[in-house]
Automatic annotation (TrEMBL):
GO terms classed as biological process: regulation of DNA-templated transcription
Annotated InterPro entries: AAA_16, BTAD, P-loop_NTPase, Sig_transdc_resp-reg_C-effctor, TPR-like_helical_dom_sf, TPR_rpt, WH-like_DNA-bd_sf
Pfam families: AAA_16, BTAD
Protein name: AAA family ATPase
Start and end residues of each Orc1-like AAA ATPase domain: 240-419
GO CC annotation: cytoplasm
Annotated ranges, domain Bacterial transcriptional activator: 151-223
UniProt KW keywords: ATP-binding, Nucleotide-binding
GO molecular function: adenylate cyclase activity; ATP binding; DNA binding
């Protein structure tokens, strides 16, 4: 038996043995005979040899017939008459061509491939014409049979597949397009129907330059109207069904809050899909018409390890409200938030300079020094807003809230009771549930609203009200209740299944299957894109999605529109086009279904895209970007890159705190540094980084590891030095210098030496300061970095100043200023260093008793910073200005300057010389304000600070002021003796000893003046 395949690449088998013809024309003759059954010799000669003499042509034909018979080993070709050839009908031949034209076989089983695909005979034009005609006949026959089959079958998915198959055969078939549009419309898939129409329009216009038939156009216009109606109904149906009792409980508490009565904050808890978000949003909608400011934020699992991420949207909402309603917020409050929350917008302020010298009224200034941490800043801003209207803050999924955000939440709700109310949601399958509840219940300020699954009766009501579904029998409703256990999300999904299938049959499957149903309608491209989107940490930027998916912008626009229309994603209203999932469970489900390799690769690709933006743009100071990099490189197991950005992340929080006069980043002002990382947090971060180093040591080369290790040692060493733990810090910095030198990283080695120099300044160790300075300056000459040259020249000036060599000191400071000012292109970066030089020149003036010059130079330092919107360093400059005022007996100005100094000390997190400002405030509180309690509290703070840093000058000054204060007031004297174990007779001697150690014995005479001021 012959098995002959003519669709696609042709293949002939005889008794399962493949037949290969010796030449193309012999093969072509055989195919021609198979199709036409009977032909004449003249017909074949004209078809294959029409361009040569008849004798040669007949000879060639005889040879071809002979070779065919020989290869087939069969008398399949007969010659009933001399000029006639035919196929022997007695021989059994099975071919796909015959199945298409002469059998009742299922058309779906017959290939759509081209007749004799790829078969070609040179210089046989007539054969090519015949081949084209047969191919067109085959296509028409296929289309005709496919259309007939589509009309018979009831299954919608099969119908769609068939019409799509027809359009692959003939992209200009308007009837097929029309039928497909109708199928989509009947199935409620309006988006696909409209998309199909647009495809038809494009094809007709491009190929024929015509528009679709008017009948199709009118039909599609009707679909568009139905779609709008459908979407409006969907919106109406999104209103919450059930939960009336729970909603009333919540609204009752909100009304109590708004009417200034006793109220409780709300915690909505329950399992995933139970309806927390629906109830949450329903409450929000109820409040839109009320005179209350609603702020909303969603917590994500990936943010749990990143500080204050949960507050980003709340702070952004505050920013928008203050801008829209012209609520004036001082720079001292705006700047800290912009440091952590870049979305917080600055307002135009005319009184910026005046703010820098703000003096609180006496009754507003309590004994303790302002502790301007993030909660205090937010509290002050919220107080401003609540003077006009009350605030309700909505937090969703607080089980994913980081500890700092949660701590801030608790403190604010305690401090702002009656001004701010909270509405929170929490998954009750989270291990932190009881801990979080207890934080609130301790003060009895929280009302828990626990959502449970609907009862049978409530489920029936939910089904009836959900949407227009085809009639569902009671037993099916009961089955839905049993399978869903009353979970609204699952009930909704089962109802969608019921609505989409006429012969609805409930399948007993777990949540995975229910959620998978949400994605079953998606095209292949849409499924690929949503898989990628699920790997992003939070929102998905459109430009990044283009890059990672390799789709064109138009393709991706179409795909994301499909995802929107299926209510899987929604837009975020930001300048950069971005999306989020409509429900976090959808994102989690998709992500969990992806295989490990896919997730790992996509995480790495996303990380690489974000890294490219981070390295090539102004995102280097964006903490959100750093946290995203850490997350994606952690998930892709890129441990070295994770370590690199983990170090940058920690350095971000410590940089400004641990650099006294840092270089200013481009287009960034030095703003308030919030002490988010307390000692325990820093310890935790260091422990995690230590673990990462142990892991990567087994994988990467020493050189790569050493680069990151040097960075880590620097961060660690600097941290301990600035906190007064000098020996620990010195140990790390020396190792960092050693590694940097071995890698010929001279600039990094200089940075290490500068930290050791700062340490010697704090300890007043002049000899070691000189040694470290010389080492750093020697390295600077090798690499010739202008900034480092200027800084080291400034530090050399400080070395001479500490030695009492004022002449050389002044020369060095003036030289440093010149170096910084010569670098015109980068001068804005050196603002703080130039200001520091003027400050030190002022210190030379003060020590020489030239108070006018001192005052002028300190003011110069302050003005340079204020004019450049730089707040760093002002704490030192105001302290020195206050000290000059004290020495010239101008206590009013001194008080003003020291108060400003303490604000900036807390704002910038600086400890250096803070004890001086606080000690003088202790004196002024006693002598000028007669506030014994405030004086003693400040004195205790000053003593602790001076001891912590161990600087002999600071210790000497604090001890001498303690001596004067004790001498002047018996009550404070007794307190110091009792609580501080102070000895009046020894204090003066100790102060003199420390001043001598600091080459500052001249201070005794000047401080003695304080003993006689009234």
């Amino acid at each position: 038996m012959f098995e002959i395949k003519l669709f696609g690449i042709p293949e002939i088998k005889y008794n399962n043995k493949k037949i290969v013809f010796p030449f193309k024309k012999a093969e072509g003759i055989f195919y021609y005979l198979l199709i036409n059954k009977t032909v004449t010799r003249d017909e074949l000669i004209n078809l294959f040899w029409g361009d040569i003499s008849e004798d040669i042509a007949r000879k060639n034909l005889r040879n071809a017939i002979y070779r065919i018979k020989k290869e087939l080993n069969s008398s399949i070709i007969l010659s009933p008459q001399k000029n006639t050839l035919c196929i022997d009908e007695q021989i059994k031949i099975n071919s796909d061509y015959n199945q298409l034209f002469f059998s009742n076989n299922n058309i779906l089983e017959i290939s759509d491939e081209e007749f004799l695909k790829g078969f070609y005979i040179k210089k046989s034009m007539y054969f090519e014409d015949w081949l084209y005609e047969i191919r067109e006949n085959c296509k028409r026959e296929r289309i005709c049979k496919l259309k007939a089959y589509a009309l018979k079958i009831p299954n919608i998915e099969e119908k769609i597949e068939i019409y799509e198959r027809i359009l692959k055969l003939d992209k200009l078939d308007e009837v097929a397009y029309s039928n497909l549009i109708k199928v989509y419309s009947d199935d409620g898939k309006y988006h696909q129907a409209i998309k199909c129409f647009h495809n038809l329009t494009d094809v007709l216009n491009e190929e024929l330059g015509v528009e679709p038939d008017e009948t199709i156009v009118k039909f599609v216009q009707k679909i568009i109207l139905n779609r709008k109606k459908f979407l409006n109904e969907e919106k109406k149906e999104n209103t919450i069904i059930g939960r009336k009792r729970e909603k009333n409980v919540i609204l009752n508490q909100i009304n109590m809050f708004l009417s200034h009565n006793e109220y409780k904050n709300i915690l909505i808890s329950g399992e995933a899909g139970i309806g927390k978000t629906s109830l949450f949003n329903s409450i929000l909608n109820e409040l839109t018409s009320m005179e209350v400011l609603c702020l909303k934020s969603e917590c994500y699992k990936v943010d749990k390890d990143f500080y204050l991420k949960a507050w980003s949207n709340v702070v952004e909402g505050i920013s928008k409200y203050t801008l829209k309603n012209n609520v004036f917020i001082e720079a001292s409050l705006i700047n800290p938030l912009r440091r952590i929350f870049p979305s917080f917008s600055l307002q135009n302020r005319k009184n910026d300079k005046e703010e820098n010298v703000f003096v609180p009224k006496k009754e507003e200034f309590n004994a303790r020094i302002f502790n301007n941490t993030i909660e205090e800043v937010l509290k002050n801003i919220l107080i401003k807003i609540t003077s006009e209207k009350k605030i309700i803050i909505f937090f969703e999924d607080i089980q994913w809230m980081d500890n700092q955000s949660l701590s801030l939440l608790i403190r604010l709700v305690h401090d702002l009771k009656d001004k701010v109310m909270l509405v929170l949601t929490l998954r009750n399958d989270n291990s932190d549930l009881h801990k979080i509840k207890n934080l609130f219940y301790d003060e009895n300020i929280l009302k828990s609203v626990e959502l449970k699954g609907f009862s049978m009766e409530e489920t029936m009501l939910f089904i009836d009200k959900f949407k227009k579904v085809k009639s569902i029998e009671k037993k099916v409703k009961e089955k839905i209740y049993l399978e869903s256990e009353g979970n609204p999300l699952f009930i909704s999904e089962y109802l969608k299944m019921a609505n989409e299938k006429s012969n609805f049959k409930l399948i007993n499957e777990k949540i995975a299957s229910v959620l998978e149903g949400r994605f079953s309608e998606l095209s292949k491209n849409a499924r690929q894109i949503i898989n990628i989107m699920s790997v992003f940490s939070r929102d998905v930027r459109f430009d990044r999605l283009i890059e990672i998916s390799n789709k064109s912008e138009l393709e991706l626009l179409e795909i994301t529109q499909e995802l929107r229309n299926n209510y899987l994603i929604k837009d975020i209203g930001t300048d950069i086009v971005s999306f989020i999932f409509t429900h976090s469970k959808l994102k989690e489900y998709i992500y969990d279904t992806l295989n490990f390799s896919f997730k790992k690769i996509i995480h790495r690709k996303i990380g690489d895209i974000i890294e490219k933006d981070y390295l090539n743009s102004n995102l280097r100071n964006d903490i959100d970007t750093l946290s995203d990099l850490i997350f994606h490189y952690k998930c892709s197991n890129e441990k070295l890159k994770m370590l690199k950005y983990k170090l940058d992340y920690v350095a971000y929080y410590l940089d400004y705190v641990h650099e006294l006069y840092p270089k200013i980043k481009k287009e960034k002002s030095v703003v308030k540094k919030l002490r988010i990382l307390d000692r325990e947090s820093v310890k935790t971060e260091f422990k995690e980084i230590d673990g990462l180093f142990k892991e990567i040591e087994k994988i990467y080369s020493d050189e790569l590891i050493n680069l990151e290790n040097a960075k880590y040692l620097y961060i660690k060493g600097r941290y301990f030095i600035r906190n007064g733990e000098y020996e620990e810090g010195k140990k790390y910095i020396k190792r960092q210098i050693l590694i940097s030198n071995s890698l010929e990283q001279n600039e990094n080695a200089i940075k290490g030496y500068k930290q050791l120099i700062f340490m010697t300044i704090q300890r007043h160790d002049i000899n070691m300061m000189r040694i470290y300075l010389e080492s750093a300056m020697k390295l600077e000459k090798k690499c010739s970095i202008k900034y480092e040259k200027g800084v080291l020249t400034r530090l050399l000036g400080l070395y001479y100043l500490m030695n009492g060599n004022f002449k050389e000191s002044l020369i060095s400071f003036e030289k440093a200023i010149k170096i910084f000012r010569e670098d015109i292109l980068n001068i804005s970066k050196y603002v703080l260093n130039i200001a520091a030089c003027y400050n030190y020149i002022g210190e030379i003036n003060r020590r020489e008793g030239q108070y006018i010059g001192a005052d002028t130079n300190y003011q110069m330092a302050i003005n340079i910073c204020v004019d450049s919107n730089v707040r760093r360093g002002l704490e030192i400059f105001y302290t020195n200005l206050g000290q000059v005022s004290m020495e010239t007996n101008n206590i009013e100005n001194a008080y003003k300057y020291f108060v400003n100094a303490t604000e900036y000390f807390d704002e910038n997190g600086t400890l250096w010389h803070k004890s001086i400002a606080v000690a003088f405030l202790s004196y002024i509180e006693l002598v000028k304000n007669k506030n014994v309690e405030a004086s003693f509290e400040n004195l205790k703070i000053a003593i602790n600070l001076s001891v912590q840093l161990g600087n002999p000058y600071d210790i000497g000054l604090v001890k001498y002021i303690e001596f004067i204060v004790m001498e002047r007031d018996e009550l404070i004297c007794n307190k110091c003796i009792k609580e501080l174990d102070a000895n009046l007779n020894e204090l003066e001697k100790e102060a003199i000893r420390y001043f001598n150690e600091a080459n500052a014995s001249f201070e005794i005479e000047r401080l003695d003046r304080l003993r006689v001021i009234n």
